[in-house]
Write a structure and sequence with these properties.
2 copies of one chain form a homodimer.
Chain A: H1 14-37, H2 41-52, H3 58-65, H4 69-81, E1 85-89, E2 97-101, H5 103-127, H6 130-144
Antiparallel strand pairs in A: 1-2
Chain A binds a DNA duplex (30 and 30 nucleotides) through residues 40, 42, 57-59, 68-74, 76-77, 93-97.
Chain lengths: 146, 146
DNA sequence: GAGTATTCGTTGCATTTGCAATGAAGTCAA
DNA sequence: TTGACTTCATTGCAAATGCAACGAATACTC
């Protein structure tokens, strides 16, 4: 018994393509972050942000980095346990936490960032002049989510 | 004590951007698939493929749809439990499983596909003529993974 | 043909996730 | 001030994930 189904091209389905590509890039990176630096992707994102801006709170990071607050919280705790950042409750508002990188954390970033930069450069090379088009299109997609 | 860290622009970091955007689109879609059709993303991908090609095996799908075989296996089992497809062991090679959509499965696809198509159309509208550029760039990124 | 290696699908298990609930702290209005 | 609401970070828990191990079936090699 043959069943008829409407046409649909999964290969060209944008959400699918984006998910697959992003997933591969992420998995790739995550592997390196883990094996070479001992941290997870969420930890990397949190550490990076704390590295740049002193005294960020969990909520600040949640908004900046598109991570759920529970993820941020756990990532921060792990980074703290590893000695890469410190948590201090804010004196002004004692609900808030001020996250700050330690020297160890800064050292780690000094190794992580060139690695990420290198990866970016590789992608840029692949994309050539298409890179701006890509970013332009991604801007439009970002705007999609209101 | 102030700590110096090399410059890095996370906002413009391509893997990050892709992950965030893909994640938002996926989460969005997953919610609808779940609430309106009662299936997960992996199940949707599996169902779609089985809908088009009769007798696919788990491994076939794994390759086609970028899902780990354990994910495919579990998705297939759930779809079977819900009555959307059947598993039959291949006579030629009894390690293989032949997956086939049931009438119920086909009916579900008839509802799912227009939904997905509509979503795609919305994205196309947002992107306008940038759509081809985007796909072109994604092609290049795909080629990246060897 | 016996023995080894490979392929396929499933499952166990530790880890990660998303979400809701919690408790502590702050805000606001009467 | 008191009491109702909101905000913040953490945590519990159920579900999803990734990976390795397993048993069954087939392919390969001598």
């Amino acid at each position: 018994m043959s069943v008829k189904v409407p046409e649909f091209d999964l290969e060209g389905y944008l959400p699918y393509r984006l998910t697959v590509i992003a997933g591969q890039l992420s998995a790739d990176l995550a592997k390196h972050y883990k094996s070479e630096f001992g941290i997870s992707m969420p930890e990397w994102r949190v550490l990076l942000n704390v590295g740049y801006t002193k005294g960020l709170s969990i909520r600040d990071i949640e908004k900046r980095v598109n991570l759920e607050k529970s993820k941020v919280s756990r990532a921060a705790s792990k980074l703290e346990a590893k000695g890469y950042l410190t948590k201090i409750t804010d004196d002004q508002d004692r609900r808030l936490l001020k996250l700050t990188v330690t020297k160890e954390g800064a050292k780690l970033l000094e190794r992580l960032i060139p690695f990420a930069q290198e990866f970016q450069d590789k992608l840029d090379k692949r994309l050539g002049d298409k890179i701006d088009e890509l970013h332009g299109a991604l801007d439009l997609l970002m705007a999609t989510e209101e």
